[in-house]
User: What shape does this take?
Amino acid sequence: MENTQVGPFLILKRLGTNRRQKVFQALQTEQQKKVALKFISIPPNVDWNQAVNKIELEVRVLQKFRHPNLVRLYGAGVEGDKIFLAHKLVKGESLTALLSRRGRLAPDLVVDIGRQVAELLQYLHQQEAMHGKLTPDKILIDKKNRVKVADLRLNRSRRKRWDDGQKRELDIAAYMAPEQFNEGATPKSDIYSLGVILYEMLTGKLPYEPDTMGRMNRRKMEQAAPSVSAHVMNCPIWLDRITCQMLSPSPRLRPHSAQAVVLAFEEIRKIDTNRRATVTQVSGHFNALTAGADKTEAHRLLGKKTKTQDADERPFYERVPFLAGSLLLLLAIICFALLPTSSLKLYQQAESMMNSPDSSQWRQARSNLSTIIDRGPDDAYFQEASDLYYESRRRTMMEQIQKGRALWAQSPNTKKLAEAISLQVQGDLDQAESEFEALVETVDPVGDERHIVMEARSRLVEIAETRQLPTEIAPLQQLIKKLAVASTADQVAESTRRLTEIVSTFSGQASYATVVDMAKQAIEQLQTPEESLETDGAVDDADSPGQDDQDGS
Assistant: This one.
C-alpha cells in the first residue's frame, strides 16, 4: 500500500515486523504531519453501516483519553471499503523488537517499564475501560525508556466487543488471562497480561509456551506459572513474587487493582535503592587507591585518636544492622500492600455504606461486595456478600422506578415489576398480585435478576397483609367505610369481595353483629347505582311523552 492515497493521508511505509497487523506510517498531506494509520477489518457477519457508526461512537470516547503512556488517537476515517484509525506517530521500537535484540532485560529496567504500563492500566480502569489485548507488540519504548501503549479499543468489563470474532490468534492468546476464553475480560485480565509480559522480560520466554490453543488454555487454568527464579538466578525475590501473583489462574488471587501494582513497583524501586546503599555501607566505602594503607601513624603524628573500631562509631542509621532491618521492613510493607483486603473488612465497609440514605453509597458498596463474591463460594463471607449485593441492586432499582428514571432502558422484567407496582398503588390488587406471582415463578431466584424476585415477594407479602382482616371492632368499621367508597368497576369488584369476606367471617358472632350489618349495607350501597339506573329507566319509559302520545293516538 506504499505511496497510496487514503483520504487525506499518503501511505509511506509499513510499521512493525508483524505482517498480520496493518499499521502504516502515513503523511497528512494538508498539515504535512506524520501519523500512524491502522486499518480495521470488519467481520463478515457485521453490517457495514453499523460498523461505521460503532467506530464513530468508539472514537469519540477514546479521543478524550489522555495519559503520558498512551498513544493518542486523532480520529477515524472511511475510504471505499477501508476503515482506518489515525494515531500519533511514536518514535521508538516495540518491546517485541527490544526483546528480540536483547533476549531478556535487567530487573531495574523491567520494573521501570512495568510501572509505566501499570500506571496506564490504572488510568484506563478508572475510566471503566480496559486494554484487553495487551502484548509486547503494543508496548512502544523510546530511547529514554519512556513507554507508550498502542492499539487501545473501547473494551468494557465482561462485555464482548461487537466486532470480536470467535477465532483467536495463538500469539495474542499467549498473553490473555484464562477467564478471557470463557467468561470474558475484566480489569484483572489486564493485570494478568502485564504479568506475562514481566515474566517474558525477565526470563526471555513465556510462562506457557503457545503449543495449541486448547492445551495452553488448560495449563493456564489448572497450573500455577513457574517462578521467574527457576530460570533467572539474579531476579530480586520481591519482583519474582509480584510477577507470580499477577499470573495467578484465579482473578481473586491477583493484586486487587492496577493501583496496587503501581505501589508495589514503587516499593521495589525503594528496596533496590536501599539495597545498593547497604552494599556501599557494607563495603566500608572501599577505594582501590587507599586499600591496605595504614593510617595509624599518620593519625598519631597529627594528634588524632586512633579509631580501632571505625564501624562502631558511625551513626546508627549508617550501621549494617539498621540498614538490613530497614530492608526487611520495606519488604514486609510491599508484601502487606499486595495482600488483598480481608473479606470481613470489605463486608463491614459495605454494611456501613448500605446504612446511608445516599444511593451513591449503595453503588459503592457493590464494589466491595463484588470483590468478595469474586473470591468464590469458599470465602467465609460469600453468601452474606451475595445477599447484600442484590439488596443494593434492589434499592437502586426501586429508586429508579419511584423516580421514573430511564425505565425504557431497563430489562423487560424490571419493566414488568414497575407495571405491577403501579397496579398495586392504583388499588388493583388482584392484577398486581398476579403480575408479582408471575415474576416469582419465571425469574431465576439465584440468577442475576434475583433482586427483582426479592421485591416481588416483598410486594406479595404487602398485599397479603393488606387483605388480612383485623379482629377489633373499630379497625373493621374503618375498613368497611374505606371499601364502601370504591369508584371504578375494578375497585367495586374488589371491595364487594372483601365486604363479603367480612360478612362470612363474622356472621353468627353477637359481638360483631353491628359490623356484619354495616358490611351488608356497604355491599348494597355498592350495588345500588346499577339497580337504581335500571329502575329509573323503566319509569322514564312508562311516563315518557312519546309513550303517552302513542297511547292517545
User: Anything to note?
Assistant: The first strand starts at residue 5 and ends at 6. Residues 473-537 form one domain. The chain has four domains: 5-88, 93-269, 343-467, 473-537.
